[in-house]
Structure formats: C-alpha cells, structure tokens
Amino acid sequence: MRTGTWIEACAADAIEAEDVIRFDFEDRTYAIYRTENGDYYATDGYCTHEKIHLSNGLVMGSVIECPKHNGRFDIPTGKAKRAPVCVDLKTYPVKVEAGKVYIQA
C-alpha cells in the first residue's frame, strides 16, 4: 500500500455518535471514531499498552478508553491521557464524501 492513499473505510452512518468501529485493511488494523459532535477520526486500532483492540472500548466525548486496563487516549491527537498507557496512538487523516468515510493511510 502506498502512503497517502485514501481508503474507503465504511459508510458514515455505520458509526453512531460517541462510538468506534474496527477497520482492517491489508496488514493494518484501525479504529474509526465518531465523536459526540459528529466529527470522524482514525487511529491505529490497538492500544499501545497491550494489543487490545480499541473498537471494544468506550468513547466519551473525544476520548477513547481501552477496554482492558482503562487507559485513555485523546481521539483527535492520539495523545495518551491516563495510565497505564504512556505511548501515543498514531492518527490518520479522515474525510467524509458522499456518505462514505475515507482514511488516508
């Protein structure tokens, strides 16, 4: 996969407000979010503390809480916000066109 390629991830209405879904593409796993104000974001799919998928986590405003040890990340920036996580998530550009969510990987 070339860096900078836009990839169709899902239908925009497939993600409720304050929710997250898993998206797998080639050898990568992503988490696609929709915050309470309707903005869409994408990060790497796994928590940086342990390899637990964030799609099973809890979205609260613009924060995702890991389902395993309750570490938290800021969704827009990927910044680690609460122990035990201390390594930030990688984030990816997102756009919504014609009712579809695309991520730039």
From TrEMBL:
Its cofactor is [2Fe-2S] cluster. CDD domains: Rieske_RO_ferredoxin. This is Rieske 2Fe-2S domain-containing protein. Gene3D superfamilies: Rieske [2Fe-2S] iron-sulphur domain. InterPro entries: MocE_2FeS, Rieske_2Fe-2S, Rieske_2Fe-2S_sf. NCBIfam families: MocE_fam_FeS. Pfam families: Rieske. Residues 6-103 form the Rieske domain. SUPFAM superfamilies: ISP domain. One of its GO terms (molecular function) is metal ion binding.
